[in-house]
Amino acid sequence: MGSRSMRDDSGAHFYRCDFQVHTPRDAQWKGRRPQTPEDRKSYANKFVAKCRELELHAVAITDHHDLTFAPVIRAAARNEVGSDGRLLPPDRQLVVFPGVELTLGVPCQALLILDADLPDDRLPQVLEALACEQSDEQAEKLPDVKPLEHISSLKALYELLDQRTWLKGRYIVLPNVTDGGHQTLMRTGMQPKYKEMPCVGGYLDGSVADIGKGNARKFAGEDPAWGSKPIALFQTSDSRSETFEDLGKYSTWVKWAEPTAEALRQACLGHQSRISQQAPALPGVFISRLNISNSKFLGPLDVAFNSQYNSVIGGRGTGKSTILDYLRWGLCDQVAQAGDDELADPTVRREKLIENTLKLVGGQVEVYFTINDIPHVVRRDSRSGEILLKVGDDEFSKVRESHVRSLLPIHAYSQKQLSSVALRVDELTRFVTSPIKRDLDTVDQKIVEFTGRLRENYAKVQRAQHLDVAIRQQQLAERSLAEQATNLRNSLTDLSESDREVLNAKPGYDRVRQSLRNQERDLRQVASSAVALLDELGRVSRDLDGMADVPERLRDLVTAVLTRRQAAVDDLRQAVAVVVAAFEQARVADSAEQLATVAVDKALSDFDVLYEEVKQRSTSHQARLKELAQVEEQRTSAADLLQRHELDRRALGDPRTLHTDLRSEFVALFRERSGLLSEECGRLTELSRGLLRASISRGRGIDAIEQKFRAAIQGSGVRGGRVEQLFSGLRDESDPVATWEEVLNEIESILLLEEDAEHTSEATPNLTRLGFPLADQQRIRNRITPDAWLDLALTPINDEPVFEYQTKEKEFIAFSAASAGQQATALLRVLLSQTGVPLIIDQPEEDLDSQVIQDVVSQIWKAKEGRQIIFASHNANLVVNGDAELVVACDYRKAGDQSGGKISLQGAIDIPGLRSEITKVMEGGEKAFRLRKERYGF
């Protein structure tokens, strides 16, 4: 009805209800009073349509001592059609409870609400049971109300109705508990009536906001004078107008699986999680269905889960744990090992389960889940190992396990695993990381991006370093060759003055030739850069043009910004295009330059001819001239190579500064990550309500970098004890991450030293301080490659959580020193306080001390608003008093035969068959239901 979506599961769901609605027969009705069957049918249709418009899911038709209109409105609800012209399915129809507003001799008024499916022919008999005179059904208006003076207490009302076996258990009575007024139960002297009544709820003419503090304490069961008897409250609108102006004005959200009076009674008994006066909070991420094509143990299986609290129950060996294992396997959940015993390893056990029960028969597992209203399906094949994922309306596509875990990172524990979490750092870490996984994923994605940028830029850093060295070498070589050429020319004697002038002019002509060649290369490079810039501006322009799906409210503002930016980009493109065109024109159309270039080339060529002639004439110096020619050729080559190196070096820019900046941002991301973890630890401490103190030991997980360091220096001759001393000292630092950054910088400075450069301990104070002496630093100098250094630099130092258990106020012990029950209680308290991904635990009661079960129950009421819970359990208190929305009951395929199981029932505790099953198969089932009643003074 209304915005409520169709549900596949058979569990309990919230319905928005108005349980005091009058019809045109009411004596105080405002408007026309339809009297003929056709007019009444027309009114009923309008009423149902109005309920849909107001998004009311359920109503109780409660005229004074009359049930005439209820069948008419129920028929209209059954005949309602959707936008496609078809009858609505039952789960989307308006739920109509027949009811009566009673004026009793208590004295007070009360609502008698009957099962929504109570047959029409039974309704007159209800009035007979009340000894209430039936009004003329054809009359358009009911007569004045005559109080039922013979019913002097609410207890007597129940006794009267229970005499009819067909009516017993099919009604609920809600007395008027409004503040003030002569028809309410909440008046002076009514304490005995309140204390003895079997009622578990009451109704208000209006809002709960109007309740005074005194009555609020009574309703909460905090007033001994009124029997310390808590009751649930239903806001009602007391609607009685043709315009429906009050309909749904004061409504109450009530949860049930089937619309019966027993469901309303169970909702009252568990009102903390089953009744709400405002739209209830529900998990946005939940598993909706598990489908098994075939299983040797369970056969074909189809379970539709509720979005809130689900309990899987059954005798031992009926398949409770198997269902949870299939679910976790389908979602690719990684099973953490509980200890060192391989036989107890959940991973090994689950692999054997899949091998022996699914793979043997070619079983395929499908898990349906919803993330923020987007449906997803994971399909996993036990034989091929293939994993397929479907998102929304897309087709199935192949994915890896990590993809599924990233989408739905469930929080799951096997039997007795919760109490062993303290033994494993990775499991404690998961407690901290799971609630903030999306935030951590965002930071981690940035870290991956910066890792790639650092690797890419570091290649430029190395290239720049090689070029810097090569440029210095080429500069030295070019100067040396120039001096050698000058000396060779000066050594030539017996030359004419003109020939010597030619020889001495050679360096100048070479410099001109080299300068023109260098300038030509630079011009080509600049022109190429200009063209590239023009292309890049074109891409930016296309990005601006392609911006779509702008919200209506932002459209004008965004358009103004884009218009200005587009104009600026167009101006830049035009300016750059002019530059590119000018280059092209200058290179092609400038005849003066071409003539000048030709003249220069001719002058250089003429000089080359003249120079060769001088050498030919100097026959007595052929050996020297030959040597001079070789030196000049080498000098030309060196100058060309130097120019290319300088050009390449300029193109690289300043990668070293960029490297430093990227490293700083890279380290800052890890500090941001540590900050998120530290904040979450503080929140976990708060959520545990003092049982647990969580903190982050920053940068303590350095095993990975120690292993990589050892691998990088292998064969250097450094003793293992030195390495152990270095990293032991690093672990003891107050800020290991900051110290490690300094150590990395010092190691890199060692690598950058030229071979004959002197290395002193002043350049590496942290390495020296941490017990890694100068001699060992020298040994690793030629062993750690730049790639190995970068690998070290990009390996994170992990943060490790530290959990402590509070034994007394402000007194803590190591979490591992607490008992298994204490650990599990503290961790479960945290888990039930967190929101987000589904929580799946197999038999949590086995990890808990029995005296804390009731505390866990009260936490479940709140927890299921923010996260889906799926427990397999033998403990009836967790199921019954925890108010499971869906109970999945497992049984043996053959009585007593544990070789095969099945699902015998699915539903909620307001269904009689489920209550009987819980009482029969669960430990303390009958006691749990009795406890549920005792909370309400029965």
UniProtKB/TrEMBL annotation:
It comes from the Bacteria. One of its GO terms (molecular function) is ATP hydrolysis activity. SUPFAM superfamilies: P-loop containing nucleoside triphosphate hydrolases, PHP domain-like. Residues 289-514 form the Rad50/SbcC-type AAA domain. Residues 725-879 form the ATPase AAA-type core domain. Keywords: DNA damage, SOS response. GO terms for biological process: DNA synthesis involved in DNA repair; double-strand break repair; SOS response. InterPro entries: ATPase_AAA_core, P-loop_NTPase, Pol/histidinol_Pase-like, Rad50/SbcC_AAA, TrlF_ATPase. NCBIfam families: TrlF_fam_ATP (NF045780). This is AAA family ATPase.
